[in-house]
Specification:
It is a single chain. This protein has 152 residues and is α+β, with helices and mostly antiparallel strands. It has a domain of 103 residues. 25% of the residues lie in helices and 26% in strands. The strands form two sheets. A four-stranded mixed β-sheet has the order 2-6-5-4. Strands 1-3-7 form a three-stranded antiparallel β-sheet. Strand 5 and strand 6 form a beta hairpin. The chain is globular and about 40 Å long. The two termini are 29 Å apart.
Length: 152
Amino acid sequence: MHIYRIGQTKYANDLKGSGIDARWNSHGQYVIYTGGSLALSCLEKLAHTSGTSLYAGNFSVTMYRVPDTMKIKEIKLPDLLKHTPEWTKVINYPYTQAIGDKWLTERETAILKVPSAIIDLEYNYLLNPAHPDFRQIKIAAIKPFTFDSRLK
C-alpha cells in the first residue's frame, strides 16, 4: 500500500512529525498525517493551509510504502458518529485527540486508519514514529508538488 503526505519540501524527509496539535493528536504528541490517495492529501492540505501560502510555498509529496502485512488499527466512521455526530467540527477536537493520543501512547500499531473529515468515504493514515514497526514503513519517493492556481 502507498500513502501520501504533501508538505513543505524542507520537511519531506521528516520521520518524526511536528508535535503540533491537530485533529487526532494533542500538542507534544508526534504523529505523521498521510492520506490514502494523492488527491485526498491535496484536499487535506487545501483545507488546512491559507491560499497565499499554497502558492508561495515550496511543496513536495512524500510517498510512503507500507508492507501489506503491517497491522493497521482502524477507527470506523459509525463509531465516531455514534459518540460524537459532529466529530468533524474543531470544537470536537478534544474527542478525536483523545483517541489519537491513546493510540500513540499504547503503541498497539504503527498506523491508525481514520475517516477523512473532508470526504468520509476516504481515509487518512496516521503514523506513529515511536512504534517499533514504524521502521518498516519506507519513503518510496519524494516529488515536487505544485497546487493548481485554480484551487482555493
